[in-house]
Amino acid sequence: MKEIVLKNKGLTLKILPEENAFAVTLGNGSVWETKRKPYVKFTDGRTVEFPSPCEVGKFRSGTGDVIKAVYSGFDNSGIRAVARIGIDRTTGDVFFNINVLGDADKEIDVVSFPPPFEFGAEKGHGYTVLSRMQGTLIPAGQPIVVETGLVFQRDAYMPIYGQVRDGSGYTAIYETPYDCKYLPEGENIAPLWLTSLGRMSYTRKIRFCFREKCDYNVIAKCYRDYVKERGGLITLKEKIAKNENVARLIGRPVIHTGIAVHTAPESMFYDKEHPENNDRYTSFDTRAHQLKRLKKLGLDKAYTHFDGWGFHGYDNLHPSPFPPHEGAGGAEGMKRLADTCREIDYIFGIHDQYRDYYYDNPDFSFDEALVYQDGSHPFHDVWNGGKHTFLCSELAPDYVRRNYDEFKRLGINIEASYLDVFSVVELDECFNEDHMCTRRDCADNRRHCLDMLSSRGIIPSSEEVLDCILPSLALCHHAPFFTEILGAEDSNPVGVPIPLLELVYHDCIVVPWIGLPAKRGGWGIPVNDSAYIYAILYGCPVYCPIDATEDDIKDVKTACTSAERLAFAELVSHEFIDGDIRRQRTTFSDGTVIEADLDSGEYKIC
User: Fold this and answer.
1) Predicted model pTM
2) In angstroms, rounded to a whole number, what is the distance separating the alpha carbons of residues 13 and 3?
3) Is residue 1 predicted with pLDDT exceeding 70?
């Protein structure tokens, strides 16, 4: 079959059907082409490249110029694949749709289609952009190493990636993002499609937005426009219209502290040498006194987050942690703490959990646990509560409803709640026939839990910022950078940190940063960097320690005052001043310009 050429808006797409090869030429002469083959990887270990198509047709619809290709003969498998490849005449975007038909249950591991576009940039002439946590820029010539490549996990908060070479580039957008991942092949990025409940099930779609003039800002804005068009860009102003209490969140520092800790003997954290350390608590009344102290020192408003309020303390007994910890003061003590917060205008927020499903919780039943494809249950014994599996997300909303009715019965005024891990860990599939659940269902179920809180006037939050959960979040715990040893306090960055998430969603969610000016490094903060400076640069609030000094509070208020002013503004652009990655500038839609030097810690807000 001869080559097929499609043209639109100065872009040319050349398809070589026999070779399953594709090349995109932009109006300025830049060429992005594929050289590898698409393939199917089967669960028995075979990897089979796509054969030449048995049928090829070209047609012109009302909106696009399209090639339809049909593939069969995948090494004795009965599957067929139907691809639609073309150019959207309205947007000029190139799209690849693939529908794999006839696969048996658990037959396919992943499908690679289309093959990756060749990067081929010389050192200093380009970079790869990944949505790894806050955002990662990997300069040409540096290796691209990821953990899983799963979309909607720390390797990809957002379902996008992009590359820039000599000024031109593309944004790749997974239009069907729930069952997919990406795989670095050298410096090329290959999109992969996963099964859903063991089958390919539906058409998978990815869109490439090519630009003659491209950088990571353009990549972010391509995606922001895409999300906005589809109704997914839910701003803080819109969230306030739905839940007026979210307005109280704006410009407040976060005070994160705990009440009680009980560490089970099976837990990784159990201290065998000093068993007395495995059970400890601070009373609700003590925490109330500490908050009053901060108020007297000048911290006029704050958002509080209390871990470990339940019967056994932090990360125990979920999703049935009641009654509140008796030693710390029980339900009455917790109510006094909540009432104190209201009196001093601090938002009373708690940690809560509806994924980890502890064996010793009073309502435990394997009938409600998540079931893997092989019929087994997840098992973990890392966290304080010891042995646990996962609760199927289909059942989580019922527990949320029950528990927050219980708070109401006890007279404890919950103003904010953090549903742990819902916006950071991978989306779960459940194969239990009584409550089967796809990854997309899981995202919907997690959002249902958060929306339930919001419907009660409770400010909803979670751990980080998965794009598919973000419309139902007002606040996250943090969203820092991917570092070489994630979790270490003194780790180097992976690539060059960039605010890709903020460039898309700054005006949609409050992202606090953990650290005061003198602090360098931290969880997700490069060892030589200050989280406080990133907060200033990105227009975000910061955390305030429970034992803060007057000077600490002055620094906290400086950052939070700036964050309050910029909360509803779009982050329009981020740049490295004179190409120096240690000197950076941000520009917001209200005209504010912020410059910061990461080495000196100096900054100015104009």
Assistant:
1) 0.97
2) 10
3) no
